[in-house]
Write a structure and sequence with these properties.
about 30 residues, 2 helices, GTPase
Length: about 30
């Protein structure tokens, strides 16, 4: 894979910061 897990996780977390709190909580459940 071209992306490491740590890099991918950082990208996902950065993307989640743009989502409403409710949506973020559902994704992180």
């Amino acid at each position: 894979m071209p992306f490491s897990n740590s890099s991918l996780s950082a990208q996902v977390k950065s993307y989640l910061t743009f989502l409403p709190e409710e949506i973020r909580q559902k994704i992180l459940e």
